[in-house]
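Field: COMPLEX_INPUT
Field: COMPONENT_COUNT = two
Field: RESIDUE_TOTAL = 750
Field: MODE = joint
Values follow.
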Amino acid sequence: MNYTTIVNNQTIPVSAIPEMGYEEFIDLNTGFLTDSPEKHCVNYFGYPFGSRVKLICCIADDSTHQIQVSSCTVKSDDQLDSFTARNFNFEKFEREIHENFGVAYKNHPWLKPVRYAKNRFDKSQTIANYPFFAIESDELHEVGVGPIHAGIIEPGHFRFICNGEQILHLEIQLGYQHRGIEQQFLEKKKLLQRTTLAESIAGDTVVGHTTAFSHVWESLCGIKASHDMEYARTIALELERMAVHTGDLSAVCTDIAYQLGSSVFGRLRTPIINFMQEWGGNRLSKGLIRPGRNQFPFTPELAHRLAEILDIYEPDFLEMNEQLFQLPSALSRFERTGVVSYEDVLSIGTVGMAARMSGLNRDVRSSHPFSLYSELNHEPIIKHHGDVYSRVQIRRQEVRQSMQYIRNLIANVPEISGNEPVLGSLNPNSFTLSLVEGWRGEICHCAITDGQGELALYKVKDPSFHNWLALALAVRNNEISDFPICNKSFNLSYAGHDL
Amino acid sequence: MFDNVKIVYHQGKQFIPNTATAKIPGIFRGRPVISSEKVNETELVDLCPVEAISVQPVSIDLGKCTFCGECAKRFPNKIRFTTDYKISTNERDRLIVKEGDENLIEVNPETVRNEIRRIFGRSLKLRQVCAGGDNSCEMELNAANNVQFDMSRYGIEFVASPRHADGIVITGPITENMADALQICYDAVPEPKIIVLVGTDAISGGIHAGSSALDRSFPDKYPVDLYIPGNPAHPLTIINGLLDLTRKRKI
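Field: COMPLEX_OUTPUT
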């Protein structure tokens, strides 16, 4: 067998990952994805390996709950056949490898910079001279937006090519948020520094990213988090999902100028994040999740308080939804707006909500369960139209589902084990992969240690890495005035993408 | 129509009547208080992920602190985080809380530029620039304008164009890739204008301090009018900071 099979959060020796020639590597990994919607690339990256670049490709199989890992070593001045020419799932990954190491791909259709990383290979490329796609025509015009947008949001540049009011093409240029997170994971040596870094990958997905980091760390140390720790993480993750979905429903209402929905959903997010602060001292859950530790145990008193909050939240949330979803002026903005087809999401390999909106079942909670999700028997919420309506419906229904999970969980608050495992040194020469379903979708963290048990590589993949392209496809042939609701219905992360 | 009225009725009163005296429920890590108890200072300094703690005397720099609370957890008799959310100030030195120091962190009215209170005292329009922020401070700035915190009741609002703004609010550690855009935005704001830094990342770089992907020349180049610390800053910290800076009211 020329690949090794692991499960979520498993640590293996780096030497256990089979290495092969590039021809075999490309055939194997693109072959996995042919006609298999349940298989997708969760991570594909390179790292310096002597004077060469080692490529590691991780393909998840959702039906068997396994991840197939294989590797190949190439030189940075190699001219390689591109995976992307055979399957678009690999499009962004290959661009990243090209940007970081200079590896050239002969037949990649769109070999453009990803984020202008500080340690990129070609420093002559700068964010000010991004090579935008252009169409020569007297009929068309371009609209450039950003990096600074009208509201209080993160920076990124959108370049529309329009025919009148209609969008023909959108290109999204990112990288403004690049803080060098992956490099800092290697430079900063204290565990608390690294945990804090994980918390600041994306401030709206603090629990998601910190849980992924904690799982990587615990697995590399060879320990397993206690039940009460995973219990707290599961509740926190579902509360984060509820809070963001509620906030995004408010933002969607703002963008269709529905003031009542905007205000009501906006204020309904507050009790959820205020509960996070009552629990852990921070409204956005910073400081709550720690590797190997139950920093703020979930007590029966907190359970009682949370039950009270949910009992007040629920009727108001349901009432507002009922009103919103029978309002013709709202529905006419949602339905058939910003459509991405099943074929497209499958082809570009979107994850999480941006897959489930178009009938593609991608949910790590059921396909590669972590924390307490194997006990919850999670059933993903799937929609089929791929439009704003589907995305908004997913949010509405996932809030109710999360609420149900939380109520089930807090009905039996576990005893705090108290004996926290000692986090020793990391296993040397090891590889770990952790998948977490954040509210946006699949978060993937990978780590590799060197012979001394120090981190040699820390690789972060936010779901937005895949999903930005879905937004660019969604707005095609829509009116440019519908861009804001398309954008908000996805609400992708700039910081999580740019790292 | 009746359904809408019913929904409005069901919300009850959401706004916080007095944003200066509102209490924060549960635990919250606001202004720290440091006792004079003797502790292993090397261990204390080593514990901090962002070198915010110094010794002789023991002090915490809230411009660097990520408010993780680890020091207070390990040395509960030495360091305690109170629920005091009014920690914004116009002087960088005032963010350093020393051993035995129970004073409030305040805006020093003596050093606030005259034109700020004269011109922006009743109306302040701000342009926000996110320069590598992780979206946490950005969400809290948005929350400051929701129906609960309702900052616009004080005449403080965020605007889309820098041409309409009286100053800029910066979040994030200021990345190299965003440095040019930040400068262009600042230059587009008409004089007189203010600079507000929101969040630990903006004030010192926070956990990202020292990363080669940052360009911190902007805050070194221009005088900063207000520091609003936090990770992220709480909406009440933001609102009270901006009010204390611009209002003639007694602090």
